[in-house]
């Protein structure tokens, strides 16, 4: 299952590069490693982490994911995509409202766990983004993702998110 997801991930993202200059597939791979080693979760969650950006960023559809990997992985990938869409649209302006909205969208807790891993890896590689994007992501992480990770019992994830957010929101004090 994980191998099939990995190969589809690499194929789907083969022509895309991250801001760091690395092939894009290295991001879902890193997210999958976080899901497997740091959270740690099951094979379905690892496969979902590998596929979490496929529908959002490539020509593959959620129906393609469902046909190849089944309804559970498709639901996790779809949930992760919908959460990303909420943040892109800036539909909600207060952290508490975001948290309520996110919970209302999630049928499977693994959707949120994959999103935590996704955000954690994005925070680990924030240096490659513009200062404006760094500030926005760091604030979102501090206001929404870190407290939410704490509520999910992910103390190490919460701590690292806060630490990385602080690095970009108050570099002088951080140093």
Can you describe what's shown?
The structure is a single chain. This protein has helices at residues 2-12, 26-38, 43-51, 54-57, 62-69, 71-89, 95-105, 109-124, 131-151, 155-169, 171-174. It is mostly helical and 175 residues long. It starts with a helix and ends with a helix. The mean pLDDT is 91.
Give a short overview.
By secondary structure, this protein is mainly alpha-helical.
Query: How many DSSP helices?
Result: 11
Integer average pLDDT: 91
Helix content: over 70%
List how many beta strands DSSP finds: 0
Q: Determine the strand fraction and express it as a percent band.
A: under 5%
What class, by secondary structure content?
Answer: mainly alpha
Radius of gyration: 16 Å
Note the main sheet.
none
The gross shape turns out to be globular
Contiguous low-pLDDT stretches (5 residues minimum) are none
Distance between the termini: 43 Å
Taken in chain order, the helices and strands follow as HHHHHHHHHHH
List the helices and strands and how they pair.
Elements: H1 2-12, H2 26-38, H3 43-51, H4 54-57, H5 62-69, H6 71-89, H7 95-105, H8 109-124, H9 131-151, H10 155-169, H11 171-174
Helix pairs in contact: 1-3, 2-3, 2-8, 3-6, 3-8, 5-6, 6-8, 7-9, 8-9, 8-10, 9-10
List keywords for this structure.
175 residues, globular, mainly alpha
């Amino acid at each position: 299952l994980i191998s099939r997801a990995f190969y589809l991930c690499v194929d789907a993202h083969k022509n895309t590069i991250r801001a760091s200059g690395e092939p894009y597939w290295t991001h879902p791979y890193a997210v999958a490693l976080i899901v497997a080693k740091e959270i740690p979760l099951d094979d379905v969650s690892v496969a979902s982490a590998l596929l979490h950006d496929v529908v959002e960023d490539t020509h593959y559809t959620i129906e393609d994911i469902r046909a190849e990997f089944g309804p559970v992985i498709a639901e996790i990938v779809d949930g992760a995509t919908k959460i990303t869409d909420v943040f892109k649209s800036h539909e909600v302006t207060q952290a508490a409202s975001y948290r309520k909205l996110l919970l209302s969208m999630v049928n499977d807790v693994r959707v949120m766990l994959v999103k935590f891993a996704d955000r954690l890896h994005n925070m680990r590689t924030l240096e490659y983004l513009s200062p404006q994007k760094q500030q926005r992501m760091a604030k979102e992480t501090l206001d929404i993702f870190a407290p939410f990770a704490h509520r999910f019992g992910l103390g190490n994830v919460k701590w690292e998110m806060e630490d990385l957010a602080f690095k970009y929101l108050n570099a002088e004090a951080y140093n």
